Amino acid sequence: MPHDLDQALKGISGILVTPYDDAGDLAPARLVPIIDRAITAGVHMPVVNGNTGEFYALTTEEACTMAQEVAGMIAGRAPMLAGIGRGIRDACRLARVSADAGASALMIHQPPDPFVSPRGTVDYIKAIAQASGGLPMMLYLRNDAIGTQAIADLCAVPGVKGVKWATPNPLKLAEAIAACDPGITWVGGLAEVWAPPLYAVGARGFTSGLINVWPERSVAIHAALDAGDYPAANALIADMRAFEDIRAEELNGTNVTGVKAALQALGLDCGATRPPSAWPLDDSQQAKLGAFLTANGLKARDPA
Question: 233-239: long-range contacts at Cβ-Cβ below 8 A with a sequence spacing of 24 or more?
Fold first, then answer.
């Protein structure tokens, strides 16, 4: 069924974990109950091959497999956003596979190459767009040091519909919004905690790893922000902030670790994380996670 991509971009982009089995190999089927719960709760757009999905720990072949498998699990119930990145040839291959699998749009990771140039990134995005057959794109911006003009040049590439703004700089976000086409959707890319200040300068929607664990809370926060009720949104965020604080430890090295540890506690084991992510949580982190889950009534699922 067709989906309103513009509305989905303004919603919650739910970044799915990548499940592994006990041997550390892909185990995509473990995502089924997580995706089902997220879509039922109202998460607008599941995202495969994002950073909460350990994108850079996957081989390109594994990332292709995840795009295909997740598309099948979503089964048209929501638009799927597919993460794309790495070297240009791998990125173009993943773009083609994601498009063939049924992705509604692509999320283009900002290239981590040490010698990346802003104008080279324009060529990179154009090549990915061509490889995908012209799928709409959301740019994932983690470093705004490239400057407002470079950001505007990237947003001017045909097919760019949105930007996932993942830097804690609301004022620079406001400058970028003013410099770009008003049709671009600016998405809060730092999850729930940063959503209110980014909303205040013009972002709409946000990305979330919490949706793997507690999608109902993410949806409630989004509804409050969409209604302009910042006190309600902030109160809802306060009750889940402990989870994000755990994920931010060790230079964000426990970001995915916290999500997968919570899933294990909920009876939704998606395996360990791969190095260089931290695994497992240390005793102090695990105690904080347990307190968070207990305080919010998050319990292990009943056996099927």
Answer: 233/195, 233/196, 234/196, 237/192, 237/193, 237/195, 237/196, 239/295, 239/296
